[in-house]
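Regression test case RT-17, inverse folding.

Input:
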């Protein structure tokens, strides 16, 4: 139940944070709450409602170095009784209870933590309490607010407020009948929070929340009964729909299989045509071997290009004019001709040439 109450308190704070300023001020004036203020010498309880604040009562704090006399104890008891009567007479009952601690009675500190700590910040701060403060974690109450997140540096800035448990217990002693407890840390979203104000939770509020949830659970049980009664009919309809869907899927798969088979047959025919066409021409190894045989040793090729059944040769030779006759003697080439005039390389004295020839198709074997 503490988690449920904390969720609704967080939800209320988040809604309040996004309200426009004029609506936020109107909402703030309508808050009905008790504020318990703890100073060095006394505890004062205020009632804040509709933008007005009035004091319900106050009580002197007990000093450890000066025990109370009998008359002071009687007066303190009377103050507590009067304060309880004032709180019980409040209507409607306060929806919020705030504990405000005077400076010097609490510790406020800004911490720099790894960004990954935000996954379980309450637990991390509990573990860090002994190192970051002079208190043990089991001797204090604390709350916190995330100030900023630095994704680049993977750092998380947190404002931590710590108050001793003994001080809180003393401050709440006049309100013992309300059965108050500290709220879960991290619920505050107020950007002006100074680390000295803490929210309190009433056990009666949680019980009231439970009493409001019970009728809802009863209604949910009735709804579940209706669901159970109509569930068989829904299942039958769902099964018919599922079978119809499966039948359509089978039909679609069968049509797809037929279409795929047609595609396979078409691709097989295209592959056969491509293989037959390729077998009509000599292979690249055969062409290179034939060139090696027909070209004289005094000829060097700089470029060889085969495209659309035609070969182009560029290079230098000691006698380029004789290359046409040599190449035409080969059964692999035909229609040999120069593509550009033969020129002489002044540095080597050899002739530069660019000639082409048609590649002869391979004759099928009988």
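Golden output:
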């Amino acid at each position: 139940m503490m988690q449920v109450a904390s969720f609704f308190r967080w939800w209320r704070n988040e809604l309040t944070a996004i309200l426009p300023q004029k609506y936020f001020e109107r909402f703030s004036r309508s808050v009905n709450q008790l504020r318990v203020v703890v100073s060095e010498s006394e505890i004062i309880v205020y009632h804040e409602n509709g933008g007005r604040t009035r004091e319900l009562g106050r009580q002197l704090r007990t000093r450890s170095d000066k025990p109370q006399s009998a008359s002071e104890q009687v007066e303190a008891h009377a103050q507590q009784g009067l304060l309880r009567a004032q709180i019980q007479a409040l209507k409607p009952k306060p929806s919020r209870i705030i504990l405000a601690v005077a400076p010097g009675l609490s510790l406020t500190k800004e911490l720099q933590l790894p960004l990954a700590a935000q996954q379980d910040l309450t637990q991390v701060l509990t573990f860090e309490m002994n190192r970051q403060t002079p208190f043990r974690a089991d001797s204090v109450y604390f709350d916190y607010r995330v100030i900023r997140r630095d994704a680049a540096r993977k750092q998380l800035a947190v404002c931590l407020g710590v108050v001793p448990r003994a001080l809180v217990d003393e401050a709440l002693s006049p309100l013992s009948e309300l059965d108050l407890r500290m709220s879960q840390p991290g619920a505050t979203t107020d950007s002006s929070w100074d680390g000295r104000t803490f929210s309190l939770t009433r056990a009666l509020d949680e019980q009231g929340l439970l009493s409001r949830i019970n009728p809802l659970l009863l209604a949910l049980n009735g709804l579940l009964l209706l669901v159970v009664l109509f569930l068989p009919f829904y299942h039958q309809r769902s099964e018919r729909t599922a079978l119809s869907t499966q039948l359509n899927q089978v039909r679609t798969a069968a049509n797809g299989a037929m279409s795929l088979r047609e595609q396979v047959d078409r691709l097989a025919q295209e592959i056969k045509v491509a293989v037959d066409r390729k077998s009509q021409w000599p292979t690249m190894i055969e062409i290179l071997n034939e060139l090696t045989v027909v070209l004289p040793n005094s000829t060097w090729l700089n470029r060889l290009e085969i495209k659309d059944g035609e070969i182009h040769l560029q290079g230098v030779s000691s006698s380029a004019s004789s290359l046409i006759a040599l190449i035409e003697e080969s059964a692999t080439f035909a229609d040999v001709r120069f593509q550009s005039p033969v020129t002489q390389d002044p540095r080597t004295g050899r002739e530069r040439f660019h000639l082409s020839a048609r590649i002869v198709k391979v004759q099928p074997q009988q």
